[in-house]
Each structure stands twice: as structure tokens, then as C-alpha cells.
Amino acid sequence: MILITVCKLFATNHFVRPQMELILLSHLPTRVLEEGFIPAAIDLNVEVTILTDCIHEHVLRKKFVPAYQHCKLLECDIFNPLSVARLMAIHQLRCDGILAMAPGLQPSAAILSDYHGLSGPSWHSTLLCSQKNALHNRLDPSDNVTNSKIIQAADLKSASMIKHFPAVVQSLEPGTGDNGQVVRNQEELSRYLTTLSEGFALVENYVEGEFYTLEGLGTPEGFIVLGGSRIQIQELSGSTIRQPQWMATLPLQNEVLSQLSGLGLGLGRHHVEYTITANGPRIKEIHNGLHTEDGELSLNEHLEGNLFRETINICLGIPSQPLQWCETHQESPMLEAMA
Question: Phi-psi region for residue 49, left (φ > 0), alpha (ψ -120 to 50) or beta?
């Protein structure tokens, strides 16, 4: 009798798990969204809702990118977690996971994930890592290497007070990205600031040394190192090109992991940048999520498995499959300014 009842339950799909819902916070359309996460979600049979503050750009892409047909699009101020929470409540959006498609959106995604009781990075750690000075002070309170100042981009008089060069300039306005521009003198600084229409910019000194990235996944079992790269910096026509040399194991990797252990990064994708100095590795910045689209797509090519699929699985609280390092000869430069 019990066996018959169980068979009837299977026959009526009572044991079929409801289709899971993933929310992606996306400013502008990107390759990592269109070539990475949307196809991975489709492969996992996960429904996708894209929340954006640039709805027209995404609607336009929907006409040319077939994968967009599987996604719902809604507009709100995605840089404000309160705005996103209100929209989700008004539209009664069911959500099993939230992912940010750009570094500037990681605090919103982390706060919202915690609010809804979902898997994700620690919002405390994400807010800390989004503030470089606070992060450096947390890692080493005696650190006096970083010399930084926040100035108004349009106030060239304030810019004239910057004396430490070379320096890295980074816009602090939402949607401008987390990349910076290396400037080597006052003239280059003033010229770059004129390209920033408004708002504030962070100017900090550039620390010399070998530059590496460590790529990882935070899982319920612990932090997993996926690999990393040594970054070669090249100047070309006023832009800074990052040329990654990918590798499975990084110099001073264990020392970097030791520094990370006290930050409680949480679950999901993590990108760490560090410089090797005379005093050992010095962490420059941490992203509790994606870094750049070229970097994520290039990293995925060096892994056996699918980085985007496993990132979604972790976000949804589903056990992930191990990602093994594999060698490839395809190395492409990341055309971006260096932060």
C-alpha cells in the first residue's frame, strides 16, 4: 500500500523540485552575462530575472542575443539594495540566489542575499573589501605604504595637491567600474580627471612589485583556489593593458590564503590581487564576486568544467562540482586600466 502511494506521488510530480529562480544584477550588457551566466543558467534549467538600471540597453541586446529570450527584465536602481528589495516585494519575485555582474554591484548582491537568507558572500566582508583603505588597515594596521586621497574629479585645484607619483586614479561613481588609470605625473593626472564627467575619484600611490591574481571559490567545505595569474603591465596609447600569464599555483600562495582566512569572505566567487614586496605578499584588493568579463572568460578557458555553472550552483545552495586546472595556449590581453 505504501509503495503504491509513493508511486502515485512520483506520477503526479509531487516530488519534482520547483524550478529555481536566479536574479542577476547587471548595469550594462556584458559578454560574461551573455556568454557565461545566461547559458549556464539555461543549462541548469534555472529561470533568470535581470535587474538593471539600463533597461533600454538590455532590451536592445535582447533583439540580437537569443539567450536573452529566456530572461525577464526589470528596471530599478540596482546600486541601492533598498530599491532592489522594494522591487522584489512589489513584484513578489521568488528568488533562490542573487549574483552581481560587476564589482560595483557586489555589496548590493551580498546585502540582499543575506536579507533573503540565501547563499552568498559575507556582506560585512564585501563592504570592507569595497573600501581599499579600510581593507588595508584591517589586514595590517601598521601599513603606511598606501597614500591615498579622495578628490572631486572636476576640482583640478585639489588634484594639484597630489604629490605622490606614480599613482592610480579610480572613479568612485556607480556604474563606472572598479578599474583605475595609472598616472605618472601631475599633467597625466589632470588630463585623466577631465575624462571623468563628475563625482569623486580615489587617488592612491602605485606599489611596485610583481603583480599576481588569485582566483577562488568559497564553498561550504572551504575556500578553493582555482588558479591565478601573473599580470604583466603594458602601456599603450594612454591605456594600461593587463596581460595575464595563467598558472595553477601562485608564488607565496599560502601566505596570501593566511591573510584571507581572517576576513570571512563567505560563499561564491572571489578575486584577489596582490603584489610581492620585500616584506612578503601585500593584498591590493579583493572582489567578492566577478572581476572583469575578459578575466572571467579567460579563467573559464583554463578550467575543466564551467566556472559560471558552478558559481550559480554555489549561489543557489547546490553542491558544486570540482573545477580542475587545465593548460591552454590561448592567452589574450585584458584591455583595461589597472586598479
Answer: beta
Range list of H helices, the chain: 2-11, 31, 38-43, 55-62, 81-90, 106-115, 123-129, 132-139, 156-159, 186-193, 253-260, 293-301, 307-315
Q: Which of 141-145, 152-156, 248-252, 328-332 has the highest average model confidence (pLDDT)? A: 248-252
Please tell me whether residues 154 and 216 are part of one structural domain: no
Single pTM value for the model: 0.83
Q: What is the pLDDT of residues 214-224, one digit of tens each?
A: 999 999 999 99
Reported as a single tens digit per residue, the pLDDT across 267-303 is: 999 999 999 988 899 998 899 888 888 889 999 999 9
Per DSSP, the chain holds a count of helices (H) and strands (E) of: 13, 16
Sign of CA dihedral 297, 299, 303, 308: negative
Could you give the CA distance from residue 123 to residue 114 in angstroms, rounded to a whole number?
Answer: 7
Tally of domains within the chain: 3
Instruction: For residues 25 and 171, state if they share a domain.
Output: no
